[in-house]
């Protein structure tokens, strides 16, 4: 929990990781990709305040103690959501797997939600793995990485029939939330594989799932906003938005936040630190203090304390059925966190 000026904020870090990108985990023959990937990630950390930067060695493989201190002890987070990214073409044991995350969660009950993932190119074996992961870790969400390489394939799309088969299976297993990486590329992945248009298709065809677009499609913010405003089940995941822009690009950050608040709305935006790229402490402190820098942004919705409470934790808590203490909830007049747009689909049975 974070407290400032008598206001208490329940914090859910809905997008964070526990990775191993150390040289010992690099796949033989693909060392250049493994090295390039983590060095590109590390360069993004430079967008945060200088005092928060890590050495590359520390960044490659931080410890359990580092994570628990940075996220919970110093970082104000009440509950964190692990989002896996496998990258087994380059990392022998995987970069950031469901199992690695889940084992840490078992050691710290109540602190973590363990999401899993799928790759539709894995066929029937992948479906069995998905079912096993949900059963073992109680996963209520997925993290999908459509740009991930596999053999000769350099990405996939949510529009693929095989992807639909996986989404149908996930829904059968009780999955509610689908986090999709659609943002800045990391070398050597292909930028086009992060295009947001496939989310539009899947969100329409799976109205009971919530699609949280992580990194809000940056740099395609306009494409994302115009897509998200027509899809009641599409949410804006603010990982990278706050960590990557609030300090380094404050005017652009104000524009991006203003567009998101106007088109998507404060009920459909979720905080994610993207740890270990950035630590949550400075992001939470800075966001609670943040407002538009000038009248230049006067045509965007105003940012209130209730807005910040929803974004920092209450929206994600609603999506994941996390119990929020009564004193940290909002009064009814502040609106319902994570509420979808009022527009409803027509019942197929209407008029029958």
Give a concise summary.
With 352 residues, this protein is α/β, with parallel strands linked by helices. It is 36% helix and 11% strand. It has helices at residues 31-45, 56-60, 64-73, 98-107, 123-137, 161-172, 197-205, 221-228, 241-245, 250-263, 280-289, 305-319, and strands at 2-4, 7-9, 12-16, 79-82, 112-114, 141-144, 177-181, 210-214, 234-237, 269-270.
What does this protein look like?
36% of the residues lie in helices and 11% in strands. It is globular. The protein is an alpha/beta fold and 352 residues long. The protein has a domain of 223 residues. Helix 5 runs parallel beside helix 6 and helix 8 packs parallel to helix 10.
